[in-house]
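stage 2 :: seqdesign
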């Protein structure tokens, strides 16, 4: 089978590998589609999380079909379409017993410490695979994890239908954020970013005001939009630039700031904004506890990938795919590989 491999030196290449055999408790799947996540691009350039293990087959945004079952697998059947929720954890440490398995002391993560989905076949543990209903497409299934990252963070905070919410960053996390806020009943949503075509997608999904930060000061625009009060909730989904300070400055008194982006280094912030306005600041970096909910939101039509997944490539065209994503060609927001 074909597999794409990186060692974190800035390159990714194709290898021919033997098709894996499922061990007890595993299912062999044929990968139908796999999303190219920004974290995958970071992995290729050696900028993955500290627990990354090289060499590695990246890919955690997976839709697949079960083709063979290992011994003792009871929740899956051959022919099932499945999505991937790639955490492998001990279940006995303090964090796991507290329900925070994504912070397990012995955490393994598919696509980061275990070979992921940039290949034709994979053997994954049964518990990482979720059967899919027929009315969730392969492409939508690849984005359950992406939407789940934003939803996991939003589950840590309360929102009201009367809130003014700001989403900072119109990539996939931010565009799903607009949809997730709408699903919660929030209607007054502002979306900020640097690319008009992405902001336009956010407007299609319900953002009532968009702000191109290259043309307008986002803090001033948000204050004007809220008659000087500031936003009730700011959802940071950019992981770049000075966006954290923008959130702290744009939030109103007793407002909430939700950080979901993964930054490439340290940032300097002014804590006085947090203290003086008594802000609540929370972080979220995983889709844990949110994937089943997001799958249902996709099934109901409250979440969509229209305008978000903009490109599809066969696995053999991976070089073109990664160049398109890293150079942001042709209006790409999210790209998917089809092994």
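stage 2 :: out
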């Amino acid at each position: 089978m074909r597999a794409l491999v990186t060692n974190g030196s800035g390159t990714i290449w194709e290898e021919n590998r033997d098709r894996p055999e499922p061990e007890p408790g595993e299912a062999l799947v044929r990968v139908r589609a796999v999303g190219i996540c920004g974290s995958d691009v970071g992995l290729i350039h050696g900028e993955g999380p500290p627990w990354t293990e090289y060499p590695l087959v990246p890919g955690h945004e997976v839709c697949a079909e079960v083709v063979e079952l290992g011994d003792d697998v009871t929740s899956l059947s051959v022919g099932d379409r499945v999505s991937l929720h790639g955490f492998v954890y001990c279940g006995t440490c303090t964090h796991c017993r507290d329900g925070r398995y994504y912070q397990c002391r012995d955490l393994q993560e598919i696509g980061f410490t275990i070979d992921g989905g940039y290949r034709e076949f994979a053997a994954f543990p049964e518990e990482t695979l979720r059967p899919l209903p027929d009315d969730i497409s392969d492409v939508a299934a690849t984005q359950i994890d992406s939407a789940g990252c934003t939803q996991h963070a939003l589950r840590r905070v309360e929102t009201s239908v009367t809130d003014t919410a700001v989403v900072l960053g119109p990539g996939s996390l931010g565009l799903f954020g607009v949809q997730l806020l709408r699903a919660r009943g929030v209607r007054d949503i502002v979306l900020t970013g640097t690319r008009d075509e992405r902001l336009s997608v956010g407007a299609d999904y319900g953002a009532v005001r968009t702000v191109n930060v290259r043309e307008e000061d986002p803090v001033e625009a948000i204050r004007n939009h809220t008659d000087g009060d500031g936003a009730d909730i700011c959802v940071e989904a950019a992981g770049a630039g000075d966006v954290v300070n923008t959130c702290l400055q744009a939030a109103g008194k007793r407002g909430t700031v939700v950080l979901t982006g993964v930054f490439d280094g340290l940032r300097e912030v002014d804590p006085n904004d947090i203290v003086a306005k008594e802000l609540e600041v929370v972080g979220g970096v995983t889709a844990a506890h949110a994937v089943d909910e997001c799958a249902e939101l996709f099934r109901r039509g409250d979440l969509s990938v229209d305008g978000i997944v903009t490109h599809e490539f066969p696995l053999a065209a991976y070089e073109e795919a990664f160049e398109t994503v890293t150079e942001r060609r042709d209006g790409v927001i999210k790209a998917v590989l089809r092994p």
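stage 3 :: structure notes
- Residues 59 and 338 are 12 Å apart (CA to CA).
- The first helix runs from residue 38 to 44.
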